[in-house]
Design brief:
The structure holds two protein chains of two kinds. Chain A is built from four helices and no strands. Chain A is mostly helical. In chain A, helix 1 packs antiparallel against helix 2, helix 1 packs antiparallel against helix 4 and helix 2 runs antiparallel to helix 3. Chain B is mostly helical. Chain B has one domain. Chain B starts with 17 loop residues before the first helix and ends in an 8-residue tail after the last helix. The chains are: A mainly alpha, B mainly alpha. At the A-B interface, helix 3 and helix 4 of A face helix 1 of B.
């Protein structure tokens, strides 16, 4: 995996989690810019996923288990969209809290992905 | 949602408000635990059959809890959350007392330290939420 992109994703995930968490804690309802924050993280995740797949196809070796890596990769890309869909079923401050949690989950999963790739 | 001011049908408060956050966390946990357990069982079940079976069992319980919470199946949700609490406490204690019995990590080993202690916190929060949203026998 690409170190810079991993760092960017970690930062984006944590910043999104803090921002959305604070907005949720303040009792805000979901606004478009909240979804924009989520979209930025998701975009980075998609870029990361595509790059990972390209690297794999080109013959890069995963030191950990490839099956778990691919499962986690698919999962990281799905977490935010599913949370958005589920959360907007009942838009409320809790939608923002759920998105904050999901962003944090994404940051943790990307960390795990990087560890599996490096065989830690 | 303003807390308890809106008249909500008593049956479905579980899946609303904070319940949505809880369901997302349970869902994430259920799916990732299931993926990991299936992989471990398919790949190297022989290495640690007990640990991997436990992981699979834990994963299924998380999925049951997720669906039950989302569908307001209170009794099923309560049962699943209680099983998790007992599981994490028993397996957590055993894994520290007799590490040899668990050669490979399970979700519940060391009270879920491999998962940031989330497996220990989740059932407690789940029980609190089930209590918080309990139906009132005598409507005020």
């Amino acid at each position: 995996m690409i170190d810079g992109l991993v760092t960017a994703l970690e930062a984006a995930g944590v910043i999104a989690a803090v921002l959305l968490g604070v907005e949720g804690a303040r009792g805000k309802e979901p606004l478009w810019w909240h979804l924009g924050v989520v979209a930025v993280v998701e975009l980075l995740l998609l870029v990361q996923a595509v790059i990972s797949v390209v690297l794999l196809v080109q013959g890069d070796q995963i030191k950990g288990s490839a099956g778990v890596f691919v499962a986690y990769l698919i999962f990281t890309v799905l977490v935010l969209p599913v949370t958005v869909l589920w959360g907007l079923g009942e838009p409320s401050r809790w939608t923002l809290v759920a998105l904050a949690v999901a962003s944090l989950v994404v940051a943790v999963l990307v960390l795990r992905l990087d560890q599996i790739w490096a065989g830690v | 949602m303003s807390q308890s001011s809106a008249p909500t049908p008593p049956g479905d408060r579980m899946s609303r408000g904070f319940g949505r956050v809880l369901i997302i966390v349970y869902g994430v946990f259920g799916v990732s635990a299931t993926a990991r357990a299936s992989y471990q069982i398919v790949r190297d079940f022989g290495e640690a059959p007990v640990a991997f079976s436990l992981s699979a069992f834990a994963a299924v319980v998380y999925l049951v809890a997720t669906v039950a919470l989302a569908r307001n199946a209170r009794r099923v949700a309560t049962a699943a959350v209680l099983v998790e609490l007992v599981g994490v406490l028993v397996v957590g204690s055993l894994s520290l007392a007799a590490p040899d019995a668990f050669p490979r990590e399970t979700v519940w080993s060391g009270f879920g330290r491999g998962y940031g202690l989330v497996p220990l916190v989740l059932p407690v929060v789940g029980l609190w939420w089930l209590w918080h949203t309990r139906p009132h026998p005598a409507r005020s």
